[in-house]
TrEMBL record:
The keyword Cytoplasm is annotated on this UniProt entry: yes
EC number(s) on file: 4.99.1.9
Primary location group: cytoplasm
Gene3D superfamilies, per database record: 3.40.50.1400
The protein, known as: Coproporphyrin III ferrochelatase
Binding-site positions, Fe-coproporphyrin III: Y13, R30, R46, Y47, Y126
Known pathway: Porphyrin-containing compound metabolism; protoheme biosynthesis
Organism of provenance: Paenibacillus hodogayensis
Job of this protein: Involved in coproporphyrin-dependent heme b biosynthesis. Catalyzes the insertion of ferrous iron into coproporphyrin III to form Fe-coproporphyrin III.
C-alpha cells in the first residue's frame, strides 16, 4: 500500500545565489525598477563584507528545507513528505515551487514560511501568491500562519540566550535586546498581529531563560518615503548607553531564523561597530539555522495542518 504523499512548500524571502545576481534580485524587490548605481553599490558592498561576498542565506535555506523533509519523514513515517522551495524575490520563486508540486503529481500540500511571526505584508503575501498559483492548478494547499509561541521554538531561542550570556565576564547588567525586521508603520492601522506576536515571543523567551532586563527593538528598516516601525536598534543602543549607562548588551534577533544579511551585516558589523565606538560589550545569539528544535517546530506545525478539519 502506497503512503499518502504530502508536498510542503517552504517559503522565505530569498537571496541572490552569487554576486552577479544582485542587480536582478534588487530589481525584483523594487517591483521591476532597477536600482541606481549608488544603490546597487551599497548593497553589493554589504554582501562583499560578509565573508567576501559569500551568500549564507541561500545555503542555509537549502539546508533548512532538506532538514525539514528529513524531520517530517522521521516523525511521521506513515506519510511521505517532499519539500519544495518557494522564494519571494529569487528563483525558485513561490510560483515555481507550487508549479513543481503540481507537475510532480502532488495532490495535497501544506505551505509554511521560514518566519515565525505573521504579518499581512510578509507571511500573508507569501500565502496569497502560493494560493493564487495553486488554485488554477487544482492543488489544494493549507497554510501555517504563525508559530511564534511554539514551545520548541521558545526553548531553542532561550537556550541560545543562556549560552550567549556565558560570553560575558558577568551576567549582571547585561541588557538583552530582542529584534526583528521592521515593517512600514501602516501595518498598525491594519491591526496587524506582527508587533504583538514579536513581543509575546520575546516575553516567553525571557521568562524561560530567566531574563528580567530586556527590551525589544526594530532593525533593518527599508529606505522609503513612508515611516517604518521604531525605535531602530542602533538608536536604542545609543539611548541605553547614554541615558542608562548600559555597557553590556546581548542581541537576540528572534525575528530571523538563519544567518543572512540582516544578521551578519546589520548586527555583526553595523551594531558591533557602534558598540565599539560607545565602549560597549555587545554579543549576539547564534541563529537557529537547522537546529533540531526548530526543525521539530516546523515539523509539528506542518503536520498539525493535516490533522485539523
Amino acid at each position: 500500500m502506497s503512503k499518502r504523499k504530502i508536498g510542503v512548500l517552504v517559503m522565505s524571502y530569498g537571496t541572490p545565489a552569487s554576486m552577479d545576481q544582485i542587480e536582478a534580485y534588487y530589481t525584483h524587490i523594487r517591483r521591476g525598477s532597477p536600482p541606481s548605481e549608488e544603490q546597487l553599490k551599497a548593497l553589493t558592498d554589504r554582501y562583499e563584507k560578509i565573508v567576501g561576498g559569500f551568500f549564507p542565506l541561500r545555503e542555509n535555506t537549502n539546508r533548512q528545507v532538506e532538514a525539514l523533509e528529513q524531520t517530517l519523514n522521521r516523525d511521521y513515517p506513515e506519510l511521505e513528505f517532499k519539500c519544495y522551495q518557494g522564494l519571494k524575490h529569487a528563483s525558485p520563486f513561490i510560483e515555481d515551487g507550487v508549479k513543481q508540486m503540481a507537475a510532480d503529481g502532488i495532490t495535497e500540500a501544506v505551505g509554511v514560511v521560514l518566519a515565525p511571526h505573521y504579518s499581512t505584508m510578509s507571511v500573508g503575501g507569501y500565502m496569497k501568491r502560493a494560493q493564487e498559483t495553486a488554485e488554477p492548478l487544482g492543488l489544494p494547499i493549507r497554510f501555517v500562519k504563525s508559530y511564534h509561541l511554539h514551545p520548541k521554538l521558545i526553548r531553542a531561542l532561550a537556550d541560545r540566550v543562556t549560552a550567549a550570556l556565558d560570553r560575558f565576564e558577568s551576567k549582571e547588567g547585561v541588557r538583552v535586546l530582542f529584534s526583528a525586521h521592521s515593517l512600514p508603520e501602516k501595518i498598525l492601522e491594519m491591526r496587524d498581529p506582527y508587533p504583538d506576536q514579536l513581543l509575546a515571543s520575546s516575553k516567553a523567551v525571557a521568562e524561560l531563560a530567566g531574563i528580567g532586563d530586556w527590551q525589544f527593538a526594530w532593525q533593518s528598516a527599508g529606505q522609503t518615503a513612508t515611516p517604518w516601525l521604531g525605535p531602530d536598534i542602533m538608536d536604542v543602543l545609543e539611548t541605553i548607553h547614554r541615558e542608562e549607562n548600559v555597557e553590556r548588551v546581548l542581541i537576540c534577533p528572534l525575528g530571523f531564523v538563519s544567518d543572512h544579511l540582516e544578521v551578519l551585516y546589520d548586527i555583526d558589523i553595523e551594531c558591533k561597530q557602534l558598540a565599539e565606538r560607545l565602549g560597549m560589550h555587545l554579543e549576539r545569539t547564534a541563529s537557529l539555522n537547522t537546529d533540531p528544535l526548530y526543525m521539530e517546530t516546523l515539523s509539528d506545525v506542518v503536520y498539525k495542518q493535516l490533522t485539523e478539519a
